[in-house]
Write a structure and sequence with these properties.
314 residues; alpha+beta; Immunoglobulin-like; seven-stranded antiparallel sheet; four-stranded antiparallel sheet; 8 helices; elongated
Length: 314
């Protein structure tokens, strides 16, 4: 991405008053102010708090090589008044177990699709939309399972290295009985639908920001609210009549950052223990004629700063 030049920004800063702008940016020198303006413009071009960098979390700070603006999911390095975005946040989402609380029939042979979805305007095109959704098809082995049956296994849905947008993630569970349609077809339909909707909404957010819409206006917009609908009522057309049901939850960046702040020992100590020794920190209950409890684990970590894989055209 072509960096903004100090020559192009200096007249703007001076015309608006150095001291007033310095106060707004939380800095105490003209040099720091110009670095902050460069960094904030780079942040804007990466879609503010909605993009892969997340929200800016403080004023720009001097470093050995220049300046650095910290964001929720990384930051922006400014050297010689050239801004380079960096990402430094990773999460892992794992299915770890299913418990039959109530059977759908006398005996159940459950299978499920677990999906994780994020929004990121950088990925709001056909080429990159696959980066917005990850799904895992999970079939409980065996037959004729009764109430109280527990299936414990670990399946990684959102893998280390996959980036998230600044609004966090949505986790959705779709549970079925063996006789409720073609499992492979159901899984592909769900993932395809979620991918298309996440792409459309990511595009809409990016377009709104490019048009100058304030962030608060986007959060209250029909496009953003549609994303909530996608993981609730909007998905109903994909859930067959004899499916057990579906459920979803949102995990925002602030909650993920709390997980990232834990050491490995602290993270393990905070995990809950379920039936069959399942170690988890989240559950979703899927209810219909039957009821299943899904156990899953979410972990997060700060990693060395890396350049985002998707450039943004100035």
């Amino acid at each position: 991405m072509t960096a903004l030049s100090i020559r192009s920004l200096a007249p703007l800063v001076v015309s608006q008053g150095l001291q007033g702008q310095a106060n707004v940016h939380g800095v105490d020198s003209a040099r720091a102010l110009l670095a902050s303006v460069v960094a904030r413009e780079c942040h804007r071009k990466h879609y503010n708090e909605f993009g892969l960098l997340g929200a800016a979390s403080g004023p720009i700070a001097p470093t050995e090589y220049g300046y650095f603006l910290t964001t929720d999911l990384g930051g922006i390095e400014v050297r010689e008044f050239k801004a380079t975005p960096k990402v430094a946040f990773r999460i892992i989402v794992q299915f770890v177990g299913l418990e039959i609380v109530e059977t759908n029939e006398t005996y159940d042979e459950p299978y499920m699709v677990m999906s994780v979805v994020t929004l990121a305007p950088e990925f709001g095109d056909d080429e990159n939309a696959d980066k917005l959704v990850a799904s895992q098809f999970i079939k409980v082995p065996g037959e004729d399972h009764k109430r109280g049956y527990v299936f414990a296994d670990t399946r990684t849905v959102w893998k280390n290295g996959m980036l998230i947008g600044g609004t966090g993630i949505k986790v959705a569970i779709f549970a079925y009985e063996e006789d409720s349609g073609d499992p492979d077809k159901v899984a592909k339909e769900i993932e395809g639908y979620l991918r298309e909707k996440a792409k459309q909404i990511s595009q809409a957010i990016g377009n709104a920001l490019d048009a100058g819409t304030e962030s608060a206006g986007i959060l209250g917009s029909p496009e953003f609210q549609l994303f909530i609908e996608v993981l609730s009522f909007g998905i109903a057309s994909l859930v067959e009549d004899d499916a057990v049901g579906y459920s979803s939850c949102e995990i925002n960046v602030s909650d993920l950052k709390k997980l990232a702040a834990l050491s490995q020992e602290e993270f393990v100590a905070k995990l809950k223990t379920g039936p069959k020794g399942i170690k988890y920190n989240y559950t979703l209950d899927v209810k219909g004629d039957g009821a299943y409890r899904i156990y899953f684990r979410v972990s997060a970590a700060e990693v060395p700063y890396q350049d985002p894989p998707i450039p943004v055209t100035p």
